Amino acid sequence: MNREEIIVSVRMLLQNPDPDAFRRLVRECPPADIAEVLRDAAPQQVSALLLTLPSREQARLFVELLDAEQDAVLAATPSGPAATLIGDLPPDERADLYNRLSSDGRERLIPLLAQAEREDVLRLAAYPEGTAGSVTTSAYATVSAGMTVGDSLQELRTSAPDKETINVVYVIDGDGRLRGTIPLRELVLNRADTKVEELMQTDPVLVRSNDPDDKATEYIRRYNMLAVPVVDGDERMIGIVTVDDAMDIDREQDATQLARYGGTSAVGGPDLDLKDSSFLRIYGTRVFWLGLLTVFGLITSNFVAAQEDILAEVIILAAFLAPIIDMGGNTGSQSATLVLRSMALGQMQLRWRDIGFVIRRELGVALALGASIAVLEVVLTYFTKGDIGGEVLAIVGLSMLTCTVVGGVLGSLLPFLARKIGTDPATLSAPLITSIMDLVGVFIYFGFAYWFLADLIA
Amino acid sequence: MNREEIIVSVRMLLQNPDPDAFRRLVRECPPADIAEVLRDAAPQQVSALLLTLPSREQARLFVELLDAEQDAVLAATPSGPAATLIGDLPPDERADLYNRLSSDGRERLIPLLAQAEREDVLRLAAYPEGTAGSVTTSAYATVSAGMTVGDSLQELRTSAPDKETINVVYVIDGDGRLRGTIPLRELVLNRADTKVEELMQTDPVLVRSNDPDDKATEYIRRYNMLAVPVVDGDERMIGIVTVDDAMDIDREQDATQLARYGGTSAVGGPDLDLKDSSFLRIYGTRVFWLGLLTVFGLITSNFVAAQEDILAEVIILAAFLAPIIDMGGNTGSQSATLVLRSMALGQMQLRWRDIGFVIRRELGVALALGASIAVLEVVLTYFTKGDIGGEVLAIVGLSMLTCTVVGGVLGSLLPFLARKIGTDPATLSAPLITSIMDLVGVFIYFGFAYWFLADLIA
Questions:
Q1: Of A173-177, A254-258, B417-421, which gets the smallest average pLDDT?
Q2: Where are the bilayer-spanning segments (chains A, B) (predicted)?
Q3: Closest approach of chain B CAs to the CA of A272, in angstroms?
Q4: Which of A164, A384, B117, B304 is most solvent-facing, going by the fewest CB within 10 Å?
């Protein structure tokens, strides 16, 4: 069934519920596709449809809904079935959902859960957002160090249905500490009497529960892992972060970087989200940055205002103010982005060798760019506004050239500066680069203006 | 061994080669960590060190080097061992390496490969960059539809060492067509006499070899897959794209988006890369965008130049030009980024419902922002530059307010416009938004100026 057919089928089933037909659909089609169609349905309808499924199937479908949808569907579900569904959720999803409930909601839920699930959700939900612990699932496969391959496969057959993944098996000692890891592959390919200790990878890569979640992602990407084990402060294993969650963390990470670069970096707290953040939060974060840029811009405008004398003589200078200082910002934006990109791909770090490389490259390119743009600007100006004095053209051309070069080099150094002061380089946002170049640009511009036209003021 | 210890050990081994010690190190430590230290060594040293390892281990370490390093090390290796190494590479890495060789290099290599490897590399290397085929590996595990679980496990034991992953097993019919998929987990958990046909997932999610590579990534993320099968034009399976490669594609994708947003979108061809792209390519791409922005800016400056009369009367107006038109660009940058972020996270699409939502939200926030910033600017101006006329303050305040609102709303609509005309929304870059707002801003500014000061010119 392709996605169009799934969409049609699910819509029909929402209108005319048919439990058998729905169960068949769920068995054959990917849950993500079915969940997408349910997105547009009323929570009550979705809840009713879900409850026609066996509990395990409910959970598989439920986790594909967006957070807000999960909450709405749950609110439309009676307590008993809701608690059963929650009990069957993967531990990491369950902990996230728990954290989204109001304290009333949590108080009502906890008594309805089985003891094991209650302890599990309370433990996982306690990890702060942004830590590895907060994206950990406790549904992982374990064997003891003394087992053989045969024992292990037997153990897996018993416990596997509850495990998110058994592709990596974790070897635990009596104290719950991680001794090593074995890929399922190795258990399959070796003789039943082989000891697990001989096959396992000792000293495995792991993260601690209070490490940032992007450390887990970094390790998964760097070492091509399917999952990375997470240990607590006592070195006891509490769960794993799986590669699919790592991909989701990555995606949010990049969305954050984009937000920062565009000047909407939320100071403390999660990113601004168009749908989820309150008016006050969006306003507050944005007015902070715009206010900062305004104050910065005041320096620029006061400086320009102080040049009244020369402006009075050569009004036309005012016309070129914007394009020239803009060019510094545009070039700086380009070079900063190139450096940011290199850093994001791991090609560049905060070391003199890389900084030197960047400056050398940028100087050459910016000179060529500045010369080209300066010529373009002067030529276009001459032909569209004929009565322009030679000195003004010279001022415009030289300012363009200098602004481009200075802008380009400064822009390429800003990400390194950000790293040096310990901030995310993307926070040196496009608007900030532009504002800095504005100020630098007016100094350059009026510098040339006075040089060429000093006699006019004297 | 932690990373510092690995660094020290490898450095010592580079100075004083000790094949046994190196082999022990390679067995115990993640290849990615060892490769990182080799990064700073001369290609000849790395080559010599690699050749002390068994061929399979060489390949595992070799693939962790960056592309440029791989090429350098290969060039420093004699043909025989080089060909053996290449023969042992994972098929997707081998195809990439082949595509990086000069035509001379390829001619020298091909005769040295075994036939199976020769055919494989020629087939995979033929897929254009950016397609699913170009990131496909042909080392996947297959079984026939008629097999039992027991047969399958036997088959895997024989062929597994050459397979990149056996966590998903592909069920192929006599014509090489994909009939279904089975997770290794299912083979382990079921009885040996169960037929594979009963367990397999039919109608599996797959991509075609000429689909874009990010489609493979999208499916892997959406359906939480470990690998997605790739078929050719005849529906025959040619290989798989694995989740670790999907993470790398994602990472490059986001770097591309950042590059576009910063105004360095490469028109056709791969992204600009600070290290790899030639001077001419970097210059050419950047001068195209800067030139475009210059021409656009010319419209703005010509308009301002035409306002000579009013500027002559009220020089001070020139001082505020920059901060006011900047504010439109800054606000637009913010709102565009928020929309871009939502689109990237799949929360928003090109439909009236989402556009309406965005406009309603942005109008409110931008009004609040505009009012706040306008008050801030007027107050700061009054207190830092005392002798300002009331009309000028009114012009500045109202322009600030209007520019912010217009900028914010326009900025939030631009990503939708980009989607509508079929271009990547991030290409509506920060510099472009700024330039558009410059022009809009000067119209607004001088509009208010004439309104308040018309009598001065009359």
A1: A254-258
A2: 287-304, 310-328, 363-383, 395-418, 430-453
A3: 7
A4: A384
